[in-house]
Amino acid sequence: MNDPKDQPIDIEEQRQWLNEHKASLGPSCSWKVLAGRLSMKTSTLSLFAGGNYNAPGDKIAEAIFRYRQTLSVQAALIGEIPEIPPYFETDTSKQILYALGWAQRGRMAAVAASPGLGKTCSAEHYRACNTNVFLFTASPVSASLTGMLNEVLRAIGVPAVSGTPQAISRMIRDRVCDLGLPLLVVDEAQHLTERGLDELRSVHDDTGLGIALLGNAGLLQTLEGGSRSISRAQLFSRISLKMPLLRPFTSDVEALLDAWRITDPQIAELVHAIAQQPGALREATFTLEMAHMIAAAGKEELAVSHVQDAWAQRTARGVAA
Hints:
The protein is an alpha/beta fold. It has 15 helices and five strands. Helix 1 (11-25) crosses helix 4 (58-80), helix 2 (31-38) packs across helix 3 and helix 12 (250-259) crosses helix 13 (265-275).
């Protein structure tokens, strides 16, 4: 990689490459899309590409040069890492899909899973495969009642609006009442407040909207509440399926190894050990990605030593080989 400020940049060469690059990406790639990738205004980039930019174009050419280098770096990384599907079936994912299917019958379900077990990609896969499935990810920013309701509104395809929580909730109810077997999936549901959870329960009671709450391992305790207040008890009693998932199954790790096309027994044994650590399958995936990069850098076939080195770089905890 080279710093564009340390070498001459041919403006015409960058302009020609930019136009050829846009053409190669097809009609779906607009100047707006490319401008976003280069962090500049759409009008500036399109004028430069057409040779109609009246100001000096050296800064734009430098931005294009950096963008080209970014593409080269990412292409090299992709070439070193085997392509695996974003979703592959595991015994854990089958349980999550079952919970989502249950909730879509007009029920409430809660899945409390440790990090790295695939709850988010399972939810996205279910949404891609079924109709009237809406997904939003809760966060501390959307923890307020109005913030949560606007996220729900956006998830069901209605632009966020300003208004009282009551008005926004009514818009949600009116929308889902027109749908057949609608399901709202809330990822990272541990961030929802008691008021937000109670409002979702109310929408469920009023409309029959299926609701699946996906969260961390403490979600069920959060929903139940230590004090068992009346509102919390109303919510907890509505949840007809409560699913704790604390560790990956052995078969989950085998599915991960199959997705990565790993047959070496030493690597498999180490990956099984890594997957039992905090982060589970996600940690194993990141470790395998790094191991492939280490192997590629040395122009070597993937070996257990590369996985050991990758794991050592990712954590100081260590795993017995």
